Amino acid sequence: MNARDKLYGIDSRIVTLRDAIAVLSFDEETVMPSSAGEERGEQIALLSGMMHDMATSDELKEAVATLKDSPMDEVTAALVRHHERFLKTEGALDRRFVEAEAKLLARSRSAWVEARRHDDWASFAPVLEEVVAMEREKAGIIDGHRDAYDTLLDLYEEGMNSEMVSSVFDPLEESIHRIMDRCTGDIPSAFMYAPYDRDRLHALCMSIIRRMGYDESRGMVSISAHPFTSMLGRDDVRITTRYDDPSWFDSISTIVHECGHALYDMHAAGNTAIRGTSLGCGVSMSLHESQSRFWENMILRSYPFIKGIYPKLVESVDALRGVGVDDFYRALNRSCPSAIRVNADELTYPLHVIMRFRLEKMLICGDLAVGDLPEAWNRMSRETVRYDVESDREGCLQDVHWAEGLFGYFPSYALGSIAAAAFYDAMARDVGGPRALESAIEEGRWDVVTRWQDEHVWSYGGMYDFATIVEKATGRALDVECYTTYLADKYSSVYNR
């Protein structure tokens, strides 16, 4: 067997194990009995260890080394880069560490669910201390000469470091605060929080994601405490949502956001050249978030989209009877500092991300003790988000990310939003201008949108990194000014400024 065949053969087995772990994790998040957490951690740990052994095997290393300097097709070259990067990063970890981390994170997730449910920070803090210590150790093993947080951040966005993130986030925070200062005047919105029929709303949610292109023969929708999307196989991409948020519209925005993720993975897996390989899925968290935030904000919260689906909204939510589409659009996009990141309005949402980026960096670098996190969270919420937190449940217990060891993930949400604005501009240019795109959205011809996304983003899967795909799709590097201009224009319109 030649080196290329060895590479693809081992990669296929790695992907199969990855998908098996995803099945167990999905079950854990949705229907697993609460007492089964420890055993599930052992199951995931065993499979994670097996997958790690394959991904760091001498056979794979030899195949990568042989192919690295040889002529090869574009897909094989991308697969070699993928495994070479893994070997230099997480491949530096031994199986003992990988299994220990998997067991700890399974226990941590279960502890977080219970702590959030009962607003019990004290029960979760000791487990989080273990997680922070383990992630610091992980960073040190991967690269002991580099800032620990930068090492973790690079796992989610290749080539990124905290200085680069701060250079984007600091001016973004200033711009958003200036826009917030201009968003004055009351916009009636009580109907956004009115009682609703859950079955009718769920039916509407499902009809929207079907029109977006979500293929139920290759996926399903479930309920979980924290909404997420999971790729369990090339023809199994699942979404979870929830119906316990303050506004009934949160359930629509949640499922549309997750569908944006799912479409990316479904279409990447649909590219026969990369289907079934490690490249047959989204390439990075920032690019993934750009696709979900694109649908949630650029499309769902746009006036053309709302105008087009408004009759269906009125049929599904009794509180909208007698509310005009213009009044609904303004209420939907009303900006007001709030506690929960996933329910935040489009303008203040990045501030939640900026705050978490700063806090998690302090935790990993040792500048903030886990025990002091609630106080630091509440203080930074007042300063950055401009919201006074009332409980740990709506504060430092609201997100599952740190319980899952995902330190370095949060910046991807805001970086994805910035990229989404650039994608929208490029899409409008390519389909005949802003008015042509708005007409397609309003008329329900959403395939105009998804065809562009598939051609310029989705079909590449993991072949190129975030920065390369942004530049290939838009013709320029990532630009925060495009995003801040979009926000300023939108909220000037919403608040008639």
How do the strands and helices of this protein lay out in sequence?
Layout: H1 3-30, H2 37-55, H3 58-68, H4 74-88, H5 95-118, H6 121-142, H7 148-156, H8 162-182, H9 198-212, E1 221-223, E2 229-233, E3 236-241, H10 248-270, H11 285-299, H12 303-316, H13 325-332, H14 349-365, H15 373-385, H16 411-430, H17 434-442, H18 447-456, H19 466-474, H20 480-494
Parallel strand pairs: 1-3
Antiparallel strand pairs: 2-3
Helix pairs in contact: 1-2, 1-3, 2-5, 3-4, 5-6, 6-7, 8-14, 8-20, 9-10, 10-11, 11-16, 12-17, 14-15, 14-16, 16-17, 16-20
Strand order of the largest sheet: 1-3-2
What is the SS-derived class? Answer: mainly alpha
Strand content: under 5%
Report the helical percentage.
55-70%
- The gyration radius over C-alpha positions equals 22 Å
* Unreliable stretches: none
**On the 0-100 scale, what is the average pLDDT?**
96
Find the count of extended strands (DSSP E, 2+ residues). 3
In CATH, the architecture of the largest domain is Orthogonal Bundle
Please identify the top-level CATH class of the largest domain.
Answer: Mainly Alpha
The overall number of domains is 2
Distance between the termini: 68 Å
CATH topology of the largest domain: Neurolysin, domain 3
Total number of helices? 20
Notes on the protein architecture:
This protein has a three-stranded mixed sheet with strand order 1-3-2. The protein is globular. It is 64% helix and 3% strand. The mean pLDDT is 96. The chain is mainly alpha-helical. The termini are far apart. It is built from 20 helices and three strands. It has two domains: 154 residues, no CATH class; 333 residues, Neurolysin, domain 3.
